Amino acid sequence: MSRPALSAELERALLSLDGLAIGDALGEMLAYRYDEAAKRIQDDSMPAGPWFHTDDTEMAIAVVETLRLARGIDQDTLAFYFARRFDAAPDRGYGKMTRMQLRSVLEGKPWRVASASAFSGRGSMGNGSAMRVAPVGGYFADNLLRACSEARLSSEVTHMHPEGIAGAIAVAAAAAMAWQTREMESAERWRILFEAVINHTPPGEVQRGLEKAVGLTGASIEDAARALGNGALVTAPDSVPFAVWCAATHLQDFPGAISAAISGGGDCDTIAAMAGGIVALSVGREGIPVRWLQARERLPFDP
Ligand SMILES: [Mg+2]
Hints:
- The chain is mainly α.
- The chain has a single domain (8-295), classed as ADP-ribosylglycohydrolase fold, CATH 1.10.4080.
- The protein contains 17 helices and no strands.
- The longest helix is centred in the first third of the chain and has 23 residues, at 8-30.
- 55% of the residues are buried.
- The model has no long low-confidence stretch (mean pLDDT 96).
- The structure holds magnesium ion.
- The site of magnesium ion has 6 residues, from helix 3 and helix 16.
C-alpha cells in the first residue's frame, strides 16, 4: 500500500523515527543480556515481531506528529501530544520525573511550570529529550542551525536544564550531519560530523564528553563506554557522547550501530534509539534490514 506523497522534511523525520524505534525496541529486548547482543544481532536470532518500543519512541512519535502538524516545534502542541500519548499508554517505561510532569500537564498545569519546577527548580538533565529528538534533526537536516534551535524548543517542554538541552541539540545536530555528509568518505565524515556537533552544542558536560569522544577513534566499545558513560545514570552527559560515538563509528552500518549501542550496557534502549535515529539518516531505509522494519511495532504513520 502506498501513502500520499510527503514532504522531503517529513520523509526524513520518518526515516529517523524508523531507526529510533528499532533501536529502542531492540535495546529494550536485548538489555538483559547486553553482552550477547552483538552475537544475536549478527546471527539475527531475535524473535519474530512485533518488537515493542518504549517511552523513547512514544515521545518521538509525538515529536513527529508536531512536526507534521506545525512544520516545526510548537511547544504547546508538543506538550499536548506528549500528554495524550502518555495518557493512552502510561506503561511504556517512562521515567519517574516525566510521569510526574505529564500527569501535571494532564491535570491542566502549564507544561512550562511543570518542566521548570522539575528537580527542585533546576530542571531535568535526564536523557529524555535527547532520546526522542533525532527526527527533528532529520526534518531540518538541510539547516543545521534550525535543527539545533528546534531541538532546544523540543527539550524545554520537559527538560529545561542546560545539560538536558545540550543533549538534545547534540543528537539533533548529529542526525542532521549524518544526512548532510551521507555521500562523503568515511574518514572525513568522522571529523566533519564531530566538529559540527561540538561547535553547535552549548558548552558544558555534554560538550566535554563529545570532545572526549572524538579522540576515541580506534577504541573498543567497552573502552568508549567506560570513558564516556553508557547511560547508566540516565543523564544527558552520561548518554549522549557515547550514543554519538556509536553512530559516528557506524555511519554506514545500521546493525553495527545498534549492536554497539546495546553492547555498552547501561540505558540500552535509549542509547540505541539515539544511535538508530542518527544512522538511519545516513544509510537510508535501504540500509535497515527489511526484517527489522517489518518486525518493529506499527507506528501511526505507517501506510
Ligand atoms: Mg525507554
